[in-house]
Amino acid sequence: MTSADMTNKVKRPAHVPASLVYDFDYNSDPEYCRDPHARAADLARNAPPMFWTPYNGGHWMFQSYEAVSEALRDYAAFSSEHFSPEAFAAMMAEIPEEERIPAPVPICIDPPLHAKLRGPLYSTFSPKSVLARESGIRALAERLIDGIAGKGRCEFQHDVSDIYPVEIFLGMFGLPVEKEREYREMAKRHLSVISPDLAENMIMMKNIASVMRDTIVERRDNLKDDIISLLWSLELEGEPMNLDLMLSYCVILFIAGLDTVVNALGFGVRHLATDLALQRELRAKPQLIPDASEELLRRYSFVAPIRIMKKDSTFRGVQLLQGERVMMFIPSASVDPKTYRDPTVFDMRRERLSHMAFGAGPHVCLGSHLARLELNVMYQTILLRLPEFRLDPERPPQFHGSIIAGPTSIHLVWGG
């Protein structure tokens, strides 16, 4: 073990049994960064279902399907709040308005306030509203794939995945689409390594807010048909929307909207490129693409949300103390052999196609209907408009870790 490894580790707390300690650094574990899902499956086989790791300030990791599912639903014990809303408001009241940091709402807020803050967005992301966007989404997918079809190769993340969901989201949100690369690079930069230091994360949120601030302020007086305008028109508990809350909403939606589908699509296309028989089957039977998409989401889940213990608890026989961090490691929960038969095998005909790729409980992903439509449309378009494609043998895929693992590059080749 190197000295750098040692300085990144903290001492095991007295209440943590030595048998529940397992070394894993979600930001820089070499095997996790080399292939997140191979490492997640290894953890599912070899690490305790709930373990404590000394990295990143020391925290718990839940990786069994049942533990993750139960904990995500138990917001009374496993809180999304790093600070209570009252404590955060008091801190910000001491800071000049132009230096304030956006509160992470509605994601880092617990019920019942969470439901009040999230409720106004339901109509925008409802199945009916999402389906109304299908023709525009399909036109964008066709433009992107037609743009690479004649080249015989592409780096999929840069040429397609980094553009497709980002352009859709920016258009819905009301941010300038011509800045899509700038926004995407900012999201990647801030999500590639997540520090346990809350001050660092707050600075990240402030930087993102500063990029959007002018557009948000301008839209206050010039409402349009977009999410920013919708939020400005809201009243919450009788109070009109204010700039602090607007920045909070927009930062969290920005992070969520610019990263999830980018990564899901990259992992899915990587699998398709390694399974030519599956490509042929889906080309012949495109009606199977939604089932294939769901199984790809299960097999390659990549989000690991973090919760804070709200009180001392004993959970499934493990003692947890107030204030401790718990990572809900969905990549391992998605290959739990107690839940799924042959869990590491891709099988779109398995009896249980349910999964937690979009989370569970009150914080289940608000944009899941939009994400599913985007994925299905892109898989349909690729399989219809590209010949059989495979991974470039000279440039293997590259990945990164963090609480949202993802592909860095996926090089594809096709044709002669």
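Above is the first protein from milestone M3; the second protein from the same milestone is given next.
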Amino acid sequence: MRVFIENFCSKTSFLLAVSSIMKNLINFLIQYSVVFLFLFLEVISFTLIVKNQEYQKSVFLSSSNSMVSGMYEWSNSIVEFFKLRAANDNLSEENTALKNQIINLQNKLSTLKPETSDSVHFRVPPEMEYQFISAKVINSSTNKLQNYITLNKGAIDGIKADMGVISDEGVVGIVKIVSKKFSVVIPILNPKSDISCKFKRNNYSGGLIWSGEDYRYGNLTDIARHVELALGDTIITSGFTSSFPEGIPVGYIEDFKIKESDAYYKIKVKLAVNFRTLSHVKVINYLNFQEQKELEKKSEEQ
């Protein structure tokens, strides 16, 4: 009996709700009946004009064709946009694979070129033994004092802390923390980042520091006043920071100043990477990183 009463009450509530909706709909139609009548008559008039007048008919067909073609173009653009995102991901993976193949071929060629006439055994220079791991940026910031970048690759993909990160344009930063599936990078846009760089034309080296102001610029430090430099000079990695091989673009000299009492230049560098549009990166797997670090640590302890 109780179940019957509950079902009856439920059905009664449903019927009351439907009745209320229908009542509101009828009131709405009555309230705006004049508007609906006007629109209905307009549609009939427009149909008669288009049907019986050849000029208006041709104009209507031309306009409708243009509208339909525009809608098709708009829908195709949306579809191509999502396809382009997948294509970019695939292109990044393929580009990384090609870079690894190029490095392997270069290393093989280097073993075929003797450094001296009496060389017997040839091998790849240990600082050139590295590979790339492609990754996608899934979170980043450029407007904070300490900015970070999150990648969609982690320990299961071979990424470890202290690995260098680059893009097709140049240096991005260094991996700080790694989980199973993700990794966090300290980019150049972070005061904690200090990457050794040098001038491409004369090999004078210094450290790149971010001032915390503009995401487009950094400051090159420890360049003595006797060093010759000019606006537009290219700054590359020196190889002294073991996370990066030598020769990766960092930026270009935007401005430099020095006072009579100063021993070092104040150099403003336009960064090679646009961090606002950064989407795909490559993580550098330096194969001899651990061995080099352990040896340097032993030398400090002695």
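Note on the second protein: The longest helix spans residues 54-110.
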